[in-house]
């Protein structure tokens, strides 16, 4: 029984064809892997009249390329093919983030673009990308043509983790990651982001060190449907810190992180904040252990 | 939309809504009896089928992505030799999934075994990543069996498959 009219599906093969569709169709739904769209209550049957643009046939969006300085990933690359194809070039933190996506079966369907754009930011990929200073290429449809801009991944989101809305329609085409990253990388996820969004915490951390000093650090955490957090102040505080860090200082910094997190995001629970603090603390203890075992 | 595909070796032309999930097509339009639930994409893991020989959650595949696809449900998979490896592992371990998730868990184990076989070059290579298998098994949320028991069954089925490949 199909009570509603079938929405029209468009299958552009190139970005040019996509631009023509942007000209003709008002407010289309861009379809990447579809895992998020299809998990919505109102997905089917639906009374929506929006046309669907299926990005699955655009080969340009399925490429992974590497230059001397960057790794560029097309947004229609699936999590599973990125894991297998990019095994040797991907940073550990990204591999762990991709590996955390439920199972191989869903990873075959989840696309990189979908996991970055998915509005509830419940997936791990963007958390890992934001600590890697990754950039996203946006093609914005303005004055009858596409114009491309690169935006840092963490600037794609509001503080509640939803995508920042833009004045004109746009499509995300590539993710660019620099090839220099920290020698200490950790990605931790607690609870399933899809099944237990109230308690789930996704945390990414990377640091560059010399033998006795942290020279650069970035910490990011996301809380499904609630918050997207990049700890800029704490990261600045960590840079230049001598290793090993005194346990009292570890304690102080981790509580500062927790207060900063709670001040900026009152939507997250005390339990999630405490979880984040402890994970962060464990990273600092691990850095200490490494420093002491040199 | 008019959807032409092959379901359980039968060429079918179906008239369905272009966004209809495969799980609902199989339940409502084809009448597949092994498909018992439609969780609306909540990843309950009870609707696994093979699409072009790849294990897929049918609740997150829309009709418009199925043009000319070859879909195999548990109803034809259970008649294959591949399924017998898994059934034998159930028997040896003395337990099997409940009727609600039997089809899905079996196809899930099949997809893990296929994945393990793809990474096993020779008959002697016998290292299995148990953490990976447990993570894959978590896809099915039916609590009828303990995960460690399912892990044992999966490793056993993999062992049977390897032996069979070795003897071929």
Word description of this protein:
- The complex is a heterodimer of chains A (294) and B (168).
- Chain A has helices at 15-24, 79-85, 92-99, 104-107, 112-117, 125-131, 232-238, 247-264, 270-292, and strands spanning 9-10, 29-31, 52-54, 64-66, 70-74, 135-142, 145-152, 170-178, 184-190, 201-209, 214-223, 227-230.
- Chain A is an alpha+beta fold and 294 residues long.
- Chain A has 3 domains: 9-57; 59-178, Uridine Diphospho-n-acetylenolpyruvylglucosamine Reductase, domain 3; 184-292, Enolase-like, domain 1 (2-Layer Sandwich), CATH 3.30.390.
- In chain A, the strands form 3 sheets. In chain A, strands 4-5-8-6-7 form a 5-stranded antiparallel β-sheet.
- In chain A, helix 3 (92-99) runs antiparallel to helix 6 and helix 8 (247-264) runs antiparallel to helix 9 (270-292).
- Chain A is globular and about 65 Å long.
- The termini of chain A are far apart.
- The model of chain A has no long low-confidence stretch (mean pLDDT 88).
- Chain B is α+β, with helices and mostly antiparallel strands and 168 residues long.
- Chain B has 2 domains: 2-76, Beta-grasp domain (Ubiquitin-like (UB roll), Roll), CATH 3.10.20.30; 81-167.
- Chain B is built from 6 helices and 5 strands, in the order E-E-H-E-E-E-H-H-H-H-H.
- Chain B has a 5-stranded mixed β-sheet with strand order 2-1-5-3-4.
- Chain B is globular, with a radius of gyration of 16 Å.
- The relative contact order of chain B is 0.15.
- The model of chain B has no long low-confidence stretch (mean pLDDT 87).
- The A-B interface holds A 1-2, 4, 6-9, 34-35, 38-41, 43-46, 52, 54, 56, 99, 102-106, 108-109, 194-195 and B 1, 16-21, 24, 28, 40-43, 48, 54-57, 59-62, 64-65, 108, 111-112, 115, 135-136, 138-139, 141.
């Amino acid at each position: 029984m199909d009570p509603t009219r079938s929405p029209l599906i468009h299958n552009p093969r190139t970005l040019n064809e996509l631009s023509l569709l942007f000209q003709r169709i008002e407010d289309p739904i861009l379809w990447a892997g579809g895992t998020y769209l299809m998990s919505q209550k109102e997905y089917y049957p639906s009374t929506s009249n929006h046309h669907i643009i299926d990005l699955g046939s655009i080969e340009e969006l399925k490429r992974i390329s590497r230059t001397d300085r960057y790794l560029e990933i097309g947004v229609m690359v699936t999590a599973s093919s990125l894991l297998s194809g990019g095994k040797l070039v991907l940073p550990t933190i990204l591999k762990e983030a991709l590996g955390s996506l439920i199972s191989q079966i869903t990873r075959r369907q989840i696309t990189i673009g979908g996991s970055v754009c998915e509005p509830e930011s419940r997936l791990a990929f963007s958390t890992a990308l934001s600590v890697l200073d990754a950039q996203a290429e946006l093609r914005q449809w303005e004055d009858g043509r596409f114009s491309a801009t690169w935006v840092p991944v963490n600037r794609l989101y509001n503080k509640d983790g939803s995508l920042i809305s833009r004045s004109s329609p746009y499509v995300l085409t590539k993710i660019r990651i620099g090839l220099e990253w920290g020698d200490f990388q950790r990605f931790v996820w607690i609870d399933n982001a899809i099944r237990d969004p109230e308690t789930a915490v996704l945390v990414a951390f990377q640091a560059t060190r010399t033998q006795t000093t942290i020279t650069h650090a970035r910490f990011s955490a996301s809380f499904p449907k609630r918050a997207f957090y990049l700890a800029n102040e704490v990261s600045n505080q960590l840079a230049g810190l001598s290793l090993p860090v005194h346990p009292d200082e570890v304690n102080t910094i981790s509580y500062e992180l927790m207060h900063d997190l709670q001040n900026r995001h009152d939507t997250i629970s005390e339990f999630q904040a405490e979880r984040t603090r402890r994970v962060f603390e464990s990273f600092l203890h691990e850095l200490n252990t490494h420093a002491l075992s040199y | 939309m008019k959807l032409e595909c092959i379901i359980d070796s039968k060429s079918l032309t179906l008239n369905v809504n272009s966004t209809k999930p495969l799980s609902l097509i199989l339940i409502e339009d084809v009448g597949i009896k092994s498909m018992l639930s439609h969780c609306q994409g909540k990843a309950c893991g009870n609707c696994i089928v093979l699409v072009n020989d790849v294990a897929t959650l049918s609740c997150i595949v829309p009709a418009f992505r199925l043009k000319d696809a070859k879909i195999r449900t548990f109803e034809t998979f259970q008649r294959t030799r591949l399924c017998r490896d898994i059934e034998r592992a159930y028997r040896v371990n003395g337990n099997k999934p409940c009727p609600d998730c039997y089809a899905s868990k079996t196809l899930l184990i099949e997809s893990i075994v296929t994945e393990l076989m793809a990474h096993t070059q020779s008959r002697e290579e016998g290292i299995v990543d148990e953490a990976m298998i447990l993570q894959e098994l978590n896809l099915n949320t039916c609590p009828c069996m303990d995960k460690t028991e399912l892990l044992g069954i999966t490793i056993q089925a993999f062992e049977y498959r390897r032996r069979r490949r070795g003897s071929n």
